[in-house]
Amino acid sequence: GDDLERLDLTVNTNKQPISLLAQTTDLSFFSLYELPFIAKDSAISNPLAANNQVVINERAMHLMGFQNAEEALKQKVTFFGDEKEIIGVVEDHHQRSLHYPTEPVLYDIPNGEFVTEDGYYSLQLAANVNRKQLLQDIQTAYENAFPQTYFDVIDVEERFAAQYATDQTLKHINQGLIGVSIGIAFIGLIGLFNITLAKRTKEIGIRKVLGASVTNIVTLLSKDFIQLVLVALLIATPIAYYFMNEWLQDFAYRIELQWWVFALAGLAAIGIALLTVSVQSVRAALANPVQLLRSE
User: 107, 5 in Cβ contact below 8 A?
Assistant: First the structure.
């Protein structure tokens, strides 16, 4: 079918003109792209019987003032001086990325065997075929049928993927930055812990001599670092929420940020810090107290 274009029309139940997107195609379009019908006339099952009829989506149905799909069937719309009958209503679907909302669309079905040298034909290729050779054969047949036109191939999956290219790039950049941040934080945590341990070596030795258990010493050394992580989370969480929410504003269809996402990230950060500090703390707690006291 042709690319979508803006169309002004009137509906027999409402003579006020409305504007929506239109595409000229045939009935095989809906089965090829697996667009489910909410309601359809018997003409849908007989493509060759279709003649100057239209199919609309849900958004168009509501724009025209119909309460449900069944009410829209058999109604007439008028554009370019022609009156055409609605024979089907399909579910709303995205022809652009989720950055944009779905729009009201009318599919013009001029006749059952719609053939044109303008616009595009949709073909579904089997997975096990020689794609390159098949496309060459199709090009040859097309150029023989329409020698004055230009043959151009568009991969639908690639076109849709291209709409998210910026988001994919941003994803990879964020993943890289997260990896670098975790690495720097890990190295810094170990360095800070070693400095603290060097300053408290004698204290640890004295505590061990006085009967402190490994658990007591690990808790003593870990407590301050966990407090630092908690303070960092209190600062980082609102900042992360702000920027994530700003990014989601670019999407017409988006999730709502949930508190458990930040709670899970916080628990992960605390877990990494606790694991890192605990390993080093256990080593210090298991050391000979005499050696710890001599180190001073």
Answer: no
